[in-house]
C-alpha cells in the first residue's frame, strides 16, 4: 500500500541550513513524497524564512517536492502569493504552501487602517484566526488567477494585477489552526489532521465537508500528522500503515523534535516501509488533479 509521506523540516530551530541539506539528501534517497519546511508557530517570527530555505534546498535537490510553511502573521497576501508562485514555477510545479492561521501583517495594516471591519467577534485568544485564514486563502486564489484583483474584505484590502500564469500551487490547510472544515475543503488541496490519535472520523468529517463545498473527496488529500522517533522505526511503520488503512487516510506527515541524526534515522527506518508515493510534481506525488489558475477550486 503506497502512502503520501511528508516529512517535517524545521530549519533554524535546532537544525542548521547545512544539516537540513544533509537530511534532504537522505529524503531524496528514500523517496519521500514531499518535505514540509517549517516557518515556526503562527504569530512568531521564524529564525529562517521558509521560502528562502526552500529555495536553497530546491536548488540542491530539483527532484524533490516541497511544502512551504507561512503564517498570515508578517506575510502580506500579495507578497506571499508572488513568492510561492515564483518558487513553484522555478521548480516546475514542485512547491506548495501550508498557510497557517495567525494575525495580520504590517503592509496590510499600513494601507488599510480601518481593518479589521465589524461583523465578526473580537479576536480574543485567536478566535478570529480561522476567519482570517479563509479570507487570506480566497485572496491567494484570486491572486493566482489571471484577472485583476479587487478585494475589500474584513481583514484584507487587495487591489492589483493577478500574478498567476499557469497552475495553482498546492495549498495545505492545517487543522491545528481550527479552520472551518467546509471552508477549508472548498479552498485547500490537502488537509492535515494534527495528531494521529485524534484522526478517528476524519475521513467521514472531510467527506461531509466536501459534500457541502461541492468538491470531490478524491480531489483532496487527508493527511495525519504523527510524532515519531527512530528507535522504534519498524514498529512505528507498521502501526502507521495500519492507522492509515483503518482511518481511510491518504497519507502521513512525520514530525520529530530531534535534530539531524533523529531525522535521518526516521527517514531510513520508517519512510521506506511506508512505500511513499512520488511524482514529477507535488500535485502528482499527492495524487491531486491539476488546478488551473482562475478556475473554480
TrEMBL record:
Keywords: Flavoprotein, FMN, Monooxygenase, Oxidoreductase
Any single biological process term in GO: alkanesulfonate catabolic process
The keyword Membrane is annotated on this UniProt entry: no
Keyword ATP-binding in record: no
GO molecular function, one term: alkanesulfonate monooxygenase activity
Cited InterPro entries: Luciferase-like_dom (IPR011251), Luciferase-like_sf (IPR036661), SsuD_RutA_monooxygenase (IPR050172)
UniProt domain Luciferase-like: residue ranges: 18-159
Pfam families tied to this protein: Bac_luciferase
Protein name according to UniProt: LLM class flavin-dependent oxidoreductase
Originating species: Kineosporia babensis
Lineage: Bacteria, Bacillati, Actinomycetota, Actinomycetes, Kineosporiales
Amino acid at each position: 500500500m503506497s502512502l503520501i509521506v511528508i516529512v517535517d523540516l524545521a530549519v533554524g530551530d535546532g537544525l542548521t541550513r547545512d544539516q537540513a541539506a544533509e537530511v534532504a539528501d537522505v529524503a531524496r534517497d528514500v523517496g519521500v513524497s514531499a518535505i514540509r519546511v517549517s516557518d515556526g508557530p503562527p504569530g512568531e517570527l521564524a529564525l529562517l524564512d521558509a521560502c528562502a530555505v526552500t529555495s536553497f534546498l530546491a536548488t540542491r535537490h530539483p527532484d524533490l517536492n516541497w511544502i512551504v510553511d507561512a503564517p498570515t502573521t508578517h506575510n502580506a497576501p500579495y507578497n506571499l502569493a508572488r513568492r510561492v508562485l515564483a518558487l513553484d514555477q522555478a521548480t516546475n510545479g514542485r512547491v506548495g504552501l501550508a498557510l497557517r492561521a495567525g494575525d495580520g501583517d504590517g503592509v496590510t495594516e499600513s494601507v488599510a487602517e480601518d481593518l479589521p471591519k465589524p461583523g465578526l467577534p473580537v479576536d480574543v485568544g485567536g478566535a478570529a484566526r480561522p476567519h482570517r485564514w479563509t479570507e487570506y486563502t480566497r485572496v491567494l486564489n484570486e491572486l493566482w488567477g489571471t484577472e485583476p484583483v479587487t478585494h475589500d474584505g474584513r481583514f484584507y484590502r487587495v487591489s492589483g494585477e493577478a500574478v498567476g500564469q499557469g497552475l495553482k500551487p498546492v495549498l495545505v490547510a492545517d487543522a491545528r489552526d481550527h479552520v472551518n472544515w467546509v471552508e477549508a475543503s472548498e479552498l485547500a488541496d490537502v488537509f492535515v489532521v494534527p495528531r494521529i490519535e485524534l484522526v478517528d472520523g476524519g475521513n467521514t468529517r472531510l467527506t461531509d465537508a466536501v459534500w457541502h463545498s461541492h468538491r470531490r473527496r478524491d480531489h483532496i488529500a487527508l493527511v495525519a500528522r504523527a510524532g515519531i522517533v527512530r528507535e522504534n522505526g519498524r514498529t512505528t511503520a507498521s502501526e502507521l500503515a495500519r492507522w492509515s488503512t483503518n482511518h481511510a487516510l491518504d497519507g502521513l506527515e512525520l514530525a520529530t523534535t530531534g535534530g539531524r541524526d533523529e531525522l535521518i534515522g526516521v527517514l531510513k527506518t520508517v519512510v521506506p516501509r511506508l512505500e511513499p508515493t512520488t511524482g514529477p510534481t507535488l500535485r502528482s506525488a499527492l495524487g491531486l488533479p491539476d488546478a488551473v489558475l482562475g478556475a473554480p477550486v
